[in-house]
UniProtKB/TrEMBL annotation:
The keyword Zinc is annotated on this UniProt entry: no
Domain Peptidase M20 dimerisation: 165-258
PANTHER family for the chain: ACETYLORNITHINE DEACETYLASE, N-ACETYL-L-CITRULLINE DEACETYLASE
Name under which the protein is recorded: Acetylornithine deacetylase
NCBIfam families tied to this protein: PRK08737.1 (NF006439)
Keyword Metal-binding tagged: yes
Species per Swiss-Prot/TrEMBL record: Parvularcula marina
Record-level Gene Ontology MF annotations: acetylornithine deacetylase activity; metal ion binding
Any one GO biological process: L-arginine biosynthetic process
Lineage: superkingdom: Bacteria
Keywords: Cobalt, Hydrolase, Metal-binding
């Protein structure tokens, strides 16, 4: 089956037009998005799985498929710096520009095109809660048994089959000071948090673990000593990393102003630390190589592939786009990547 760029871009343009920012994760089971998906999945049995709090899964099945394709349809909030309406896709010379084109509505558009061009067994799970460290939809889906030999998680890998990625741990620290007039000095929660951040970034392993402080919030105004400060951060360990010890090291850097520090979300690396799961991953990559998929190097970002693998479903990551474009202003995906991903998905459909 041949690739139709115009058809894929029509699908992608429609998907970009649906506001699925997370947060706020405002989609409901009755959202227009799901009706649109139903109309573009002829011959499929479809349902919307509701796991609460906006954590949804559009599940589409045709026949007895052995491979499950997984895509998250939620996007990050609109970043500063966009030069166009993020929800109105632009078709440039070699790329499509719009929120979610790379991460990862481009993959959904390719899969819908594959579904339309084939009539064999196929299964799709499109979720809405990946971007805010939730993943309740995938966790909920995995509470039941499913007949799949493998899962393809369609995060951006330039359409290469990728068997390994880092884990992720995100955490929140809360600092408490004593409010007062800045002319008299005092115990500032923001000062305590700033020292904590500076010391953590100086840890010898910080860069290797991609330690990042993504949110600092507190205080009222410059002439008031800040009584409170919230800090959210995360880091990404390779398979086998001792993330609990790393978090303890970070916690030990905080002074007496620290009120609490705890995990918000933790996702395991791929492959997970289990002999049976690792054997399954190796067999999957041998299968991928055997059917002619381009194999990629390990990636530094986390995906829900590790959740599927931990539940007993060997998983690989394969989708159009470059992670460098994800979460960025004027996000884009190259047409060449869309075609490569379409061809890879067609190859999987033919052989799996």
């Amino acid at each position: 089956m041949t690739f139709s760029l115009d058809t894929v871009l029509d699908h992608l343009e429609a998907l970009v037009g649906f506001d699925s920012q997370n947060p706020p994760r405002a989609l409901t089971p009755q959202a227009e998005l799901f009706g649109w998906l139903d109309t573009h999945a002829p011959g499929f049995e479809t349902s919307v799985l509701d796991y609460g709090d906006g954590c949804l899964g559009w599940y589409a099945k045709r026949g007895e498929a052995r491979t499950l394709f997984n895509v998250h349809l939620d996007t990050v909030p609109i970043a500063p710096g966009w030069t166009q309406d993020p929800h109105k896709m632009t078709r440039a010379d070699d790329r499509a520009i719009g929120l979610g084109t790379c991460d990862i509505k481009g993959a959904a558009a390719c899969l819908l095109n594959v579904a339309a061009k084939t009539d064999g067994p196929m299964a799709l799970l499109f979720t809405t809660d990946e971007e805010a460290g939730q993943s309740d939809a995938v966790h909920g889906f995995l509470k039941e048994s499913h007949p799949y030999d493998r899962v393809i998680v369609s995060e951006p890998t330039k359409a290469k089959a990728t068997p390994q990625h880092r884990g992720i741990l995100s955490a929140e620290a809360n600092f408490k000071g004593m409010s007062g007039h800045a002319s008299k000095g005092g115990v500032s929660a923001i000062h305590a948090a700033a020292k904590f951040v500076t010391d953590a970034l100086a840890l010898p392993w910080a860069a290797d673990y991609r330690l990042n402080f993504g949110r600092i919030e507190g205080g009222v105004k410059p002439n008031m000593v800040a009584a409170d400060c919230l800090v959210r951060f995360g880091f990404r360990g390779l398979p086998g990393a001792d993330t609990a010890s790393r978090l303890d090291e970070i916690r030990a850097l905080a002074g007496d102003e620290l009120v609490s520090l705890g995990k918000r979300f933790e996702g395991p690396p791929l492959p997970i630390a289990d002999d049976k799961a690792q054997a399954g991953q190796k067999a999957l990559m041998d299968w991928a190589a055997g059917i002619g998929l381009d194999l990629g190097d390990p990636v530094d970002f986390w995906t829900e592939a590790s959740l599927f693998a931990a539940a007993g479903y060997p998983a690989l990551v394969l989708g159009p786009g470059d992670i460098a474009q994800a979460h960025a202003a004027d996000e884009f995906v190259l047409y060449a990547d869309l075609e490569a991903a379409f061809n890879a998905y067609m190859r999987i459909m033919t052989h799996g």
